[in-house]
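During the reporting period the student researcher (J.K.) took over the structure-prediction task from the postdoctoral fellow and processed the backlog of single-chain submissions. One of the processed entries is reproduced below for the supervisory committee.
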Amino acid sequence: MKYLALSLAGLWLIAVIAIIVDSVFLHVGAKMAGIRRATFGRAVKASIACSLSTLLLALIFSWVPVGGTAVGFLIGLGLTIVVLQASYSTGFGKAFLLWIFNVVAQIIAVVAGTFLLTGIFSLTG
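J.K. obtained the following structure tokens:
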């Protein structure tokens, strides 16, 4: 039971880290892309929307046998571009640039969260 609670807390921690890191990256990316409506609040909202869309589609498609989760994740990444276009009221090119920042931020957040989670498990051993 202890490991289940730690695992759920760790997943929550990774989600929070992902939103924070992704928000910073999206904000910097939006400024670099020259998007006029680039605020940090908009970056946080876009980050949450992108994360939820990707995770929900991965969860929905996880019921499909043979690679369903991967297919859902890839569709979610494609939907992320649409979410970024809507969030920032911009074209495909700038949304694609933001999407690249989003992918890099998600990778960094998962790696950082995994290291933190591993450290927490080693301390509670």
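The committee noted the following: Helices lie at 2-33, 40-61, 68-88, 92-124.
J.K. will present the remaining backlog at the next meeting.
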